[in-house]
């Protein structure tokens, strides 16, 4: 037996067999809008929803775009407005983004310098990051992500309301509060949270350095470094949720799980020693036949399949009590209860981190640290999951189903 929507059903029953392919609604168009440039046209943005019918799961969502744009006559929209010339518009944009290229324009006049191989200092790439995408494109991505979260949350009947969350404040223990900059950051382990904590330490004056990467990783995870939202009164919590900028960074659920397994059971560190002793020995004892005495006493050689068997076992404690490194993101950050201003993704980490800092007016103060060693976990997910049976994969998907659906991820093995 296993749990399906709160009901116990035989393991032979599959959610995939009850699939419903989603269909698009009619397009709904917004009024013509325009930047009112000389000889320009406006744009009409149209949207449609995947609700005709609604898909049964993330694997059966509609294909194609949910947003499109067409040109329109902007004469009425721009009546009474002074139209900008392309040069005036370009000057405004140069002035806006001039802050990111002080080595081109030290006076901040927004004038473009001629390019040469010597135009940029050697350390320019580590100083300031500027995404290739425009801020309009980044904001559009955010709109789509938040729209999907809202749609999936509406379909779910298990969303805690804010009153119940405030009564059980431990549910808010992963939201870090930065009072000075009015930020709420819900950290998800294995999704760049170490670097975000380092950056917040710099912003909040909790480190004797302005370089986040100079902060020892363990120092950023100490219990009393930050104040969490669960430390506030109910009234204070509501105020901060209403008035502070809230952001979260998420990752493909199976990629995050593989990363946690490799980091906590496959590496040699004081942290992995703890996880092997705390979880590894228990996992070997429960899921390995004829385990050696050394494996039983050390828990040092847990396989990924054994780790998955532990996670999907009904005897394992309720998932709300999972260790934070493999607890579902929906349980850590409550995206159906808390409306985040920015939902960043690990796959677009630098762009989304830039957007967070831009919206908080902090890009001139700090930059999100770039990693010299990009994660290779994505390419390893299939390698790890191929050792699982289809039933194990389905059970694992079910544990993280809301993460898949909320954040538009697809599960390997179901295609």
Amount of beta strand: 5-15%
The secondary-structure element order is EEEEEHHHHEEHHEHEHHHHHEHHHH
Note the gap between the termini: 25 Å
User: How many structural domains?
Assistant: 3
The value of Rg in angstroms is 24 Å
Q: Structural class of the secondary structure composition?
A: alpha+beta
Q: How many extended strands?
A: 10
Largest sheet: 5 strands, mixed
Distinct helical segment count: 16
Helical content stands at 25-40%
> What's the rounded overall pLDDT mean?
84
Sequence of strands across the biggest β-sheet: 8-6-7-9-10
Inertia-based shape: globular
Q: Which segments are poorly predicted (pLDDT under 50) over 5 or more consecutive residues?
A: 11-17, 109-126
Structure description:
With 415 residues, this protein is α+β, with helices and mostly antiparallel strands. The chain folds into three domains: 18-80, Single Sheet (TSP-1 type 1 repeat), CATH 2.20.100.10; 86-127, no CATH class; 138-254 and 322-406, no CATH class. The chain has 16 helices and ten strands. Strands 8-6-7-9-10 form a five-stranded mixed beta sheet, with helices on both faces. It has a three-stranded antiparallel beta sheet with strand order 3-4-5, with no helix packed on it. A two-stranded antiparallel ribbon has the order 1-2. Helix 11 crosses helix 15 (390-399). The longest helix has 21 residues, at 135-155. It starts with a strand and ends in a 9-residue tail after the last helix.
TL;DR of this structure?
The protein has 16 helices and 10 strands. The chain has 415 residues and is an alpha+beta fold. Strand 1 (2-4) and strand 2 form a beta hairpin.
């Amino acid at each position: 037996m296993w749990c399906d929507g709160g009901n116990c059903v035989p393991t032979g029953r599959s959610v995939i067999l009850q699939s419903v392919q989603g269909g698009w609604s009619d397009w709904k168009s917004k009024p013509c809008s325009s930047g009112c440039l000389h000889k320009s046209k406006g744009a009409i943005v149209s949207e449609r929803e995947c609700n005709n019918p609604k898909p049964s799961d993330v694997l059966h969502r509609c294909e194609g775009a949910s947003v499109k744009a067409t040109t329109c006559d902007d004469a009425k929209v721009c009546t009474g407005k002074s139209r900008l010339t392309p040069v005036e518009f370009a000057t405004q944009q140069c002035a806006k983004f001039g802050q990111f290229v002080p080595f081109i324009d030290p006076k901040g006049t927004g004038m473009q310098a001629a390019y040469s191989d010597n135009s940029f200092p050697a350390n320019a790439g580590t100083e300031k990051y500027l995404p290739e995408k425009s801020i309009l494109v980044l904001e559009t991505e955010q709109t789509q992500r938040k729209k999907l979260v809202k749609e999936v949350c509406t379909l779910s009947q298990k969303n805690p309301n804010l009153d119940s969350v405030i009564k059980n404040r431990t549910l808010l223990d992963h939201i870090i509060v930065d009072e000075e900059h009015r930020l709420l950051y819900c950290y998800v382990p294995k999704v760049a949270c170490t670097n975000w904590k380092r950056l917040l330490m710099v912003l909040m004056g909790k480190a004797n350095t302005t370089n986040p990467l100079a902060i020892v990783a363990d120092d950023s995870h100490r219990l009393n470094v930050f104040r969490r939202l669960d430390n506030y009164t109910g009234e204070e919590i509501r105020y901060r949720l209403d008035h502070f900028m809230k952001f979260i960074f998420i990752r493909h659920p199976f990629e995050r799980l593989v990363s946690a397994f490799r980091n906590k059971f496959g590496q040699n560190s004081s942290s992995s020693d703890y996880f092997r002793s705390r979880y590894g020995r228990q996992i070997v004892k429960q899921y390995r036949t004829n385990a050696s005495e050394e494996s039983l006493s050390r828990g040092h050689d847990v396989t990924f399949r054994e780790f998955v068997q532990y996670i999907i076992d009904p005897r394992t404690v309720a998932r709300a009590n999972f260790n934070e490194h493999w607890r579902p993101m929906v349980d850590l950050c409550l995206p159906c209860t808390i409306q985040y201003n920015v939902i960043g993704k690990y796959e677009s980490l630098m762009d989304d981190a830039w957007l967070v800092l831009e919206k908080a007016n902090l890009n001139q103060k700090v930059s999100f640290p770039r990693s010299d060693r990009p994660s290779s976990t994505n390419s390893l997910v299939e390698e790890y999951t191929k050792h699982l049976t289809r039933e194990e994969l389905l059970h694992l998907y079910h544990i993280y189903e809301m993460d898949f659906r909320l954040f538009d991820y697809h599960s390997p093995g179901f295609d």
